[in-house]
Write a structure and sequence with these properties.
By secondary structure, the chain is α+β, with helices and mostly antiparallel strands. It folds into three domains: about 270 residues, 2-Layer Sandwich (BirA Bifunctional Protein, domain 2); about 110 residues, Rossmann fold (3-Layer(aba) Sandwich); about 70 residues, 2-Layer Sandwich (Translation Initiation Factor IF3), CATH 3.30.110.30. The chain is about 35% helix and about 30% strand. The chain has 14 helices and 26 strands. Strands 3, 7, 8, 9, 10, 11, 14, 22, 23, 24, 25 and 26 form a twelve-stranded mixed sheet that branches. The protein binds one RNA strand of 77 nucleotides through helix 1, strand 11, strand 14, helix 10 and helix 11.
Length: about 500
RNA sequence: CGGGGUGUAGCUCAGCUUGGCAGAGCGCUUGUUUUGGGAACAAGAGGCCGCAGGUUCAAAUCCUGUCACCCCGACCA
């Protein structure tokens, strides 16, 4: 059978949605599960999540946050406390009403032992963490309170897609309380910056930071900020959010403290999170028609060594050579963790083995056979280059330059993603051009002046499925007139079709 | 939740219109020959035809219901 031209069928241009699913399958990241809307994250995919966790957690700790854990179940009455919050989440909550199973006459297990008050499975934890904050906070001396939790949450979505939107997903949710409004706003923006920095530096995924419009705001928040990334099909993906909650939740949940003037005040709170959706963002930022492409700083493994032993006089010598090489590489430090090496000595054909690693997106593949061992070198292929661009490199040279090569790959992925985004970004100055652009196949980011009227936003969404992604924080201050209403506008805002 | 589509071997699917022994390719197992970028041959293993009812001498096939997944909407990290 002739090899297909691409490892992934269909390609991105043929059927993007299908391509996305095939990449996940081919890279062995995750599968759908017997439970509707829930996914099984497999080792290679979970390895990505572990690296996301490790990297972000260090950033949270460095800015003074501590991890804690709160219950999966939230009393129904807690959800009731903040009106907007209720409205935002009520429709997608899983509800626990019983605490026991009993066999019926036919021996079928039936729920029994009805709970006095139903519990909901957390869709987010503002309410239960707020409840605890109200107990923990008494004095201004208890503030700021900076807490993060790594957890799973459940939102009963109508339509799900692996990583992008699943009924259960993994995330972190930071929750903080502050004595002053300014401090809480600063915290909100600080965490947004950390997300941006993480996305760009670690994931090699450029993002735009900005504020959400009223309609796109987190239920109960005063202000929601997000990082918005551009996927390869020209659709935007909200990849992380940071909310300034004002005193809305502290009023609803009685989070008060006494200030140094003996007065009782409501605390100012924030919350912020990123989820396993980031893995979807990663795939759609970097993967190509041959499968996943991983930025080295997030890759579960950096290098795979494939021993070529089939026609060697002494296969063990090659294996030993590979193990020694792996050990030499494994002590190198690459951005806070050791270089991670796999030796793939599975007894399968070389081509199949190689393509497996291509599809998994490992940054560097090394083939080591008798000829290489003899010349004390390795045969290197990079995932960011063509499959045939392999080159022999002396072993010593490879060891001394490998972290530079990884950085070069990392930087290359970022540059490529920036270039793609720039190409998919334009500035538009009339309603007519705006509609012309987005009707049909139009995609990408569009900067346009906007007066801020929510009704106009709804209309555009209805007409074109285009939403206001964010009101960018940096670099777009410029007086103008709204292209939809002609009213004055202080700056251009960011529009796109989105996930 | 509305519209459309699909459920048959681990995977991709044929068979269904017109009811009559459960099929193919890939993958898997074993063996031989191969092997520096998706190997060849041979012999095997593997299915409650999504699930539950119904019609019939007989159901993968017809009827009813139900569940799941995919695509398009509405909603969302």
């Amino acid at each position: 059978m002739a090899a297909p031209k691409t490892a992934i069928v269909p390609t991105r241009s043929e059927d993007y949605a299908q391509w996305y699913q095939e990449v996940i399958k081919a890279a062995d990241l995750a599968e759908t599960s017997p439970v509707r809307g829930c996914m099984v994250i497999k080792p290679w995919g979970y390895g990505l999540w572990e690296n996301i966790q490790q990297n972000l957690d260090a950033r949270f700790k460095a800015t003074g946050h501590k991890n804690a854990y709160f219950p999966l179940f939230i009393p129904l009455s807690f959800m009731q406390r903040e009106a907007d919050h209720v409205e935002g989440f009520a429709k997608e909550c899983a509800v626990v009403t019983h605490h026991r199973l009993e066999p019926d006459a036919d021996g079928q297990l039936q729920p029994a032992g009805e709970l006095e008050e139903p519990l909901i499975v957390r869709p987010t934890s503002e309410t239960i963490i707020g409840e605890m904050f109200s107990k923990w906070i008494e004095s201004y001396r208890d503030l700021p309170l900076l807490i993060n939790q790594w957890a799973n949450v459940v939102r009963w979505e109508m339509r799900t897609r692996l990583f992008l939107r699943t009924a259960e997903f993994l995330w972190q949710e930071g929750h903080t309380a502050h004595a002053t409004e300014q401090e809480a706003v600063d915290e909100t923006l600080q965490m947004l910056d950390i997300y941006k920095e993480f996305a760009e530096n670690t994931m090699a995924m450029p993002v735009i930071t900005g504020a959400k419009s009223e309609g796109e705001r987190f239920p109960g928040a005063v202000e929601t900020y997000s990082i918005e990334a551009m996927m390869q099909d020209g659709k935007a993906l909200q990849s992380g959010t940071s909310h300034f909650l004002g005193q809305n939740f502290s009023r609803a949940q009685d989070i008060t403290f006494q200030n140094d003037n003996k007065e009782v005040e409501f605390a100012w709170t924030t919350s912020w999170g990123v989820s396993t959706r980031l893995i979807g963002a990663l795939i759609m930022s970097h993967a190509d028609d041959d499968g996943l492409v991983l930025p080295p700083r997030l890759a579960p493994s950096h290098i795979v060594i494939i021993p070529i032993t089939f026609k060697a006089d002494d296969p063990d010598a090659i294996l030993n050579y590979c193990h020694k090489l792996a050990a030499d590489l494994g002590v190198l430090n690459y951005h806070g963790r050791n270089v991670t090496v796999e030796i793939d000595n599975r007894d399968i054909r070389g081509g199949e083995k190689t393509w497996g690693w291509v599809k998994k997106g490992i940054p560097i593949r090394l083939e080591v056979g008798p000829r290489d061992m003899e010349s004390d070198s390795v045969f290197m292929a990079r995932r960011d280059k063509g499959h045939k661009e392999k080159q022999g490199v002396p072993r010593e040279e490879f060891i001394t330059t490998v972290t530079d090569i990884l950085d070069e790959i990392q930087q290359g992925l970022f540059d490529r993603a920036v270039a793609r985004r720039n190409e998919a970004t334009q500035t538009i100055d009339s309603k007519e051009d705006f509609y012309k652009h987005f009707e049909g196949d139009g995609s990408g980011f569009v900067y346009a002046h906007f007066c801020g009227d929510p009704a106009v936003e709804d209309e555009i969404k209805g007409d074109l499925k285009v939403t206001l992604r964010c009101i960018p924080l940096h670099g777009h201050d410029e007086e103008g007139t709204c292209i939809f209403t002609g009213k004055p506008s202080k700056q251009r805002v960011l529009w796109a079709k989105s996930y």
